[in-house]
Known about the structure:
Elements: H1 32-57, H2 64-96, H3 102-121, H4 130-154, H5 161-179, H6 187-208
Transmembrane segments: 37-61, 67-86, 98-120, 132-154, 166-188
Keywords: Membrane, Transmembrane, Transmembrane helix
Region (Disordered): 1-23
Amino acid sequence: MRDDPAGRRDDNPYAPPRGALPAAPPMPGWSSAQLRVLGYLGLATVLGSLVSALLSLGGLIRMPGVALYGDWLGLSLVLLGNYLLLRLKGFAEARFAARGLAGPVWLSVALGLLLEAAALSFEPAPLASWKAWLYAAGLIGYGGLLVWLGVRLLAVPGGFQALRGAGWLVIAGGLMLVSLVFAAQAMLPLLGAQLALARVFFQGAAELRGRD
């Protein structure tokens, strides 16, 4: 009978287990390969967003050929981001029994698609026009939905640290959109959130690797 470093004895039936981590619950319909693909898609979304930002900052997005490419890239990124968000919702519900994600996820997906459609169909308008005010109101609403989503991610019971980090970054990005003043810079925390969510998928894949 030996003492452990904390002073507990090996035969103590009330001592907490050492070196053992709680196993992930059964998750029918999920596999490590599927989660790895989702993780890589999350990384691809980050890379595509960086390309889009560089095109905008360099002024290339105003060139006729590049503008069309930028529009399609932006639409593809929105669709992919929404798909990953829906898959994250399903994973969090299966892995952590998360609740309360459906509302902010579905509403942010719907409003995000409307904002992207507006950005593609509306020509640049003066700040005083009704289109500009309508788009600004949409951004404020979208930012509020992101704050709600971030709060729900923080409330996920037993969530990965990456999931909590994503929650804080989503809240930061949402508040920047709500302010409108820092709406352009909101991309930075939201890119960080996308990286964190990719990490969530990779962690889930590591948990399920031994079950495949």
